[in-house]
Specification:
By secondary structure, the chain is an alpha/beta fold. It has a single domain (8-205), classed as P-loop containing nucleotide triphosphate hydrolases (Rossmann fold, 3-Layer(aba) Sandwich). The chain contains 5 helices and 7 strands. A hairpin with a 3-residue loop joins strand 3 and strand 4 (73-77). The chain is globular, with a radius of gyration of 16 Å.
């Protein structure tokens, strides 16, 4: 399927399972640490700067957003993890609605695991990777905020992540469900080749 992102509509905003849309469509899910740039990336991916609201306050949104793309699949934006305003005890856990989402039987095509290219994998990112592998959900690393680094540092950061994914593959073999090559994007640079690559990837899985 060739996805054009010509028609993107906010279909549901859910705080609990009962509010998830019930229409059976493939789903591409976006996950990542708070402030990794999910909303900004989603706006750039869909060519609509007002589609998803961005916030300078990490951990503020604990809702799941379902967007219908070209009436053919859902783009699902899960709450950011790794930050809690209300309780330090909650900092090391994924949100309740995230757990509810993954515990429900749904048609998941792939998860986009977003990493800030300047920081790479953190402990919670690896926990999410372990979670996705356990449930045999394919996942693709997307390196965000590439514009924050020089070209040489972009390449260094990208090769570091490739090396880490290769080691994971060597240890886990087929038990690891990740795609081997990360996609590097800048959501604020015009004609970003990484954004086109990401759209092609999504087309390939839905």
């Amino acid at each position: 399927m060739s996805v054009q992102f010509n028609r993107v509509e906010l279909t549901a905003v859910a705080a609990k399972t009962e509010q998830f849309p019930q229409r059976s469509l493939p789903e591409v899910i976006m996950v990542g640490r708070s402030n990794v740039g999910k909303s900004t990336l989603l706006n750039a991916l869909c060519r609509n700067k007002n589609l998803a609201r961005t916030s300078q306050t990490p951990g503020k949104t604990q809702l799941v957003f379902f967007f219908t793309v070209d009436d053919s699949f859902y783009l699902v934006d899960l709450p950011g993890y790794g930050f809690a305003q209300t309780s330090r005890r909650s900092e090391e856990k994924f949100s309740r609605v995230t757990d509810q989402y993954f515990n429900q039987e749904r048609q998941r095509a792939a998860v986009l695991l977003l990493l800030d290219i300047r920081r790479g994998f953190g402990d919670l990112d690896w926990q999410m990777a372990d979670f996705l592998d356990f449930y045999h959900i394919p996942w693709q690393v997307v390196l965000t905020k590439a514009d924050k680094l020089s070209r040489s540092k972009q390449n260094d950061a990208r090769f570091k992540v490739i090396s880490e994914l290769k080691k994971r593959r060597e240890v886990l073999g087929d038990a690891s469900c990740h795609f081997d090559t990360p996609i590097m994007v800048s959501a604020i640079q015009a004609n970003d080749s990484g954004m086109a690559e990401l759209r092609r990837f999504i087309s390939s899985v839905v």
